[in-house]
Amino acid sequence: MTHRGRFRLSALLAGGLLFGGDCTQTPSHCLVETVDGEVRVRLHPNDVVNRLPGVDYTRLMLAPGDGRVTKASALGRNRMVFGVGGDDATSFPLAYAVFLCREHSDLPGDPTFRDNLLNTLLTP
Fold this sequence. Notes:
Layout: H1 3-15, E1 17-21, E2 24-27, E3 31-35, E4 38-42, H2 57-61, E5 62-65, H3 71-74, E6 96-100, H4 111-122
Parallel strand pairs: 1-6
Antiparallel strand pairs: 2-5, 3-4
């Protein structure tokens, strides 16, 4: 790798290089409920037993992501409290971010992912 290539790679890594998915509803908030006297933690709306009328559990518990990591989490965004605005700025600098419509474990095999990664790393 040339000096210029090494400089670009180090600048990208220092500034943050991010690839992720954002087409799959991904658990973002858990729900704690008591069922038969035992406390249960629910990660998916379909698992909630004691449903309240008018509550959209899907909207409360899921967010765009890759099935394992939400887009907001990948970007380092503060979205921990539902209904509170949160800071849209990332907590770490990003030089380059790409989101694809892929599951978490399928990202490395995606041709678009590989093309973007190689172009980013090899462009002077």
